[in-house]
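Q: Here's a chain of 201 amino acids. Please give me its 3D structure as tokens.
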Amino acid sequence: MAGVDEPVAAEPSAAFPGDPDGFERLWTPHRMAYVKGEHKPVDPHDAGQCPFCRAPGRTDEDGLVVHRGERVFVVMNLFPYNPGHLLVCPYRHVSSYVDLDAAELVEFTALTRAAVLTLRAASGPAGFNIGMNQGDVAGAGIAAHLHQHVVPRWAGDSNFLPVVARTKALPELLEDTRRRLAAAWTSTDPSDPAGPAGAGG
């Protein structure tokens, strides 16, 4: 039995700052920009505020550009669903798929195909989600500038995090993914059945 003058150790309590509580933390501070709506144009008709109009004016590294075509380019999604989540965008500031002219439409389709083939060669995904959201009501993050999502998918890549915490765990930095995909991008010719080297099938 402890004497009256001997200190008695306090019972561990979660009330003390810094005490472990049994939870692991996955910090995603980069998502605060998405939550706050940063990078979204205040005026959807002002191309100067559009992130998809600004990206091609930067270096590939700063703009996260993977490939530059004549009328269409491919860029990393700043808030990716999965590693390698790409966006296919026309340089021209148009909001609707039907606003693309004939030449843009051909290159838009060709670069979407090339994006799939490049991701197959670089990452070997089991499948893809490919599509576009037209308008705010359809879930478009930047409705004023057309962009097609190319999202690589793997078995088991979806878990409780997106459902419970609105968070995705990404094992690779955007800059590293961009560098890897840009290096793998070797063909945008829609008539080439093989596409990027080693990506056939």
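Q: Can you summarize the key feature?
A: Helices lie at 31-35, 51-54, 60-63, 102-123, 160-165, 174-184.
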